[in-house]
Amino acid sequence: MIKFENSLEFAKRKDHEDVLREIRERFCIQENVIYMDGNSLGLCSKDAKEALYHVIDLWEKHGIGIWDVEDSKYFLYQKVLGAKLALLIQADADEVTVMTNTTINIHQGISTFYKPTPDRYKILVDDLNFPSDRYAVDSQVRLKGYDPKDAVKVIASSDGRFISEDAIIEGMTEEVALILLPSILYRSAQLLDMERITKEAHDRGIIIGWDLCHSIGIVPHDFKHINPDFAVWCNYKYLSAGPGAIAGFYINKRHFEKEPGLAGWHGNNKETQFKLLNEFDHELNAHGWQTGTQPLFSMAPLEGVLNIYHEVGMEKIRAKSLDITRYLMDLTDERLAKYGYTIGNSREDHKRGGHICLEHEEAYRICKALKNRGVVPDYREPNVIRLAPVPLYVSYEEVYRLVEILEEIAINKDYENYSNKRTLVV
């Protein structure tokens, strides 16, 4: 393992040696800003802008004819983008589509697979997942006439940071019909062993779905080996497809014959779609779970940025991500620990996602001080400063300067100049 040095010269040398250094120029870097919030909303890329402007130009020029240009590419855009996304998770092209948003896609997955019986009616979740996932689960349970207090089985964290994989497996009892879990916990960056958990679920006859929001685009997945039943994710974090960008949906090909829980006309077989029949003719692939007309302006930036991903490759992205987050942790140990900063994520590579969870009792006010100093962090209750040095556009020098600023804020107690009152968007 490389020994990191606590010097600006070392950081600059790392940047010079970085195989991804030229990719940074493809992103719209904000002047005098250190952007560490790419795990919430990724930076805009020039490739994404170009793809979006191209679609706007086509709309201007062709009107409704946009659906027919470029061999009907944009009428079938979900297939084009699904195939590109499938390469990031090692799935078949027809197992992946793009549609709606993450929460609606959770509703789609659960409504398709959740078929409760008197003996098997519970959905297993964890207590650290992003709340929207739980809202969707509770809602689906209620729609089936059950009380979430009974039908939703919650695996509790013992420390508020991590979930025990053994506890998840122990919770796979006979009354569990379906499982929904995050691949990476948003608060602690814990990366779960998806292959192990999925196999244990299937051995017990349980359907399992995964939320990849905090892993897609930063951690390579191999769905040929993981073999889940379905998965969902957003495309606006590491994948940088834009605010509220269209989301991703995966369904294993062994389930193509199932009826979608939420049917719509864009899930209809393309050969019969414009016959406008009242009987749904389900397209037998992931695109059969589409509902309404695809939002091209939300989809185009994703195509642009995916071109960058395929040019670089997930292996190089993951390698730099692990290295630069390790560098940030090393500097934290050396320069920040004495001021009350602690690392709240796993230090093991195979258990860590793409962001660092820096904990401090004054985390919220420190985040405000950081923003005032040109650093964009992310705060999570109760005491976490999330920092995501996204490999495609964050440099080692920026990480070094970030630590300098964190140190100065602590030494001077700059955070005391800020209120603890929460703003609308923390």
Automatic annotation (TrEMBL):
Subunit and partners: Homodimer.
Lineage: superkingdom: Bacteria
InterPro entries for the chain: Kynureninase, PyrdxlP-dep_Trfase, PyrdxlP-dep_Trfase_major, PyrdxlP-dep_Trfase_small
Pathway annotation from the record: Cofactor biosynthesis; NAD(+) biosynthesis; quinolinate from L-kynurenine: step 2/3; Amino-acid degradation; L-kynurenine degradation; L-alanine and anthranilate from L-kynurenine: step 1/1
Organism classification: Bacteria, Bacillati, Bacillota, Bacilli, Bacillales
Group of enzyme by EC: hydrolase
Protein family (similarity comment): Belongs to the kynureninase family.
Protein name, per record: Kynureninase
Cofactor(s) the protein requires to work: pyridoxal 5'-phosphate
NCBIfam families recorded: kynureninase (TIGR01814)
An example Gene Ontology biological process: L-tryptophan catabolic process to kynurenine
Function text: Catalyzes the cleavage of L-kynurenine (L-Kyn) and L-3-hydroxykynurenine (L-3OHKyn) into anthranilic acid (AA) and 3-hydroxyanthranilic acid (3-OHAA), respectively.
Pfam families reported in the protein's UniProt record: KYNU_C
Enzyme Commission identifier(s): 3.7.1.3
UniProt keyword list: Hydrolase, Pyridine nucleotide biosynthesis, Pyridoxal phosphate
MF terms in GO: kynureninase activity; pyridoxal phosphate binding
